[in-house]
Amino acid sequence: MSENVDLTAAERRMQGAMESLRRDFASIRTGRANSSILDRVEVEAYGSRMPLNTVANISVPEARLLTVTPFDPSTSKDIERAIENADLGLNPQNDGKIIRLPIPELTEERRKDMIKRARGMAEDTRVSVRNVRRDELKDISELSREGDISEDEERRAGEELQRLTNKYVSRIDEALSDKESELSEV
Questions:
Q1: Which residue from 72, 99, 73, 95 is spatially nearest to 86, judged by alpha carbons?
Q2: Domain count, the chain
Q3: Where does residue 89 fall: left (phi above 0), alpha (psi -120 to 50 degrees), or beta otherwise?
Q4: Residues 112 and 165 reside in one and the same domain
Q5: What is the CA angle 91-95-96, rounded to 5?
Q6: Structure-derived torsion over alpha carbons of residues 151, 170, 126, 149, reported in degrees to the nearest 10
Q7: Which of 60, 77, 102 is the last residue of a domain?
Q8: What is the pLDDT of residues 80-101, one digit of tens each?
Q9: Which domain holds residue 149?
Q10: pTM surpassing 0.70?
């Protein structure tokens, strides 16, 4: 391929979309305790919104229990409220020092809802990857119009970009399949 057409920026953007999907999938609750389901929880404390893990220690003492220990006990109620508002299907039990989060079994309806949510996230990521392809194709076409690359180089760069897009769409599909399997486990 021509040295004039560099697809590393496009690949970096596609990789970023993939990493974002992995974080999103980690936030989807399965039937097991996993501290990453709280990664998206933001607590209103000290006059600003902060990630939960900056105001509390999160641990997994048992397979079906998460504990949240606030660094400052005065933020306990704020943390509890943030977890309730996060719509994770968790019921915080606050004793003033530690907030316990029992992880309930997923009902069949909740499982289907989570799978549907995961599919939506995967589709959004596929769209992001395709948008990267579209932007890059526009740039390649512009290089060709300006005479910086030949039509053959433009075609080869387009084919390479399509291979890259297919690779990331395939990775998205694999990640979705893994998450669906994980959510389907009883």
A1: 99
A2: 2
A3: left
A4: yes
A5: 115
A6: -10
A7: 102
A8: 999 988 877 788 999 988 999 9
A9: 8-25+107-184
A10: yes
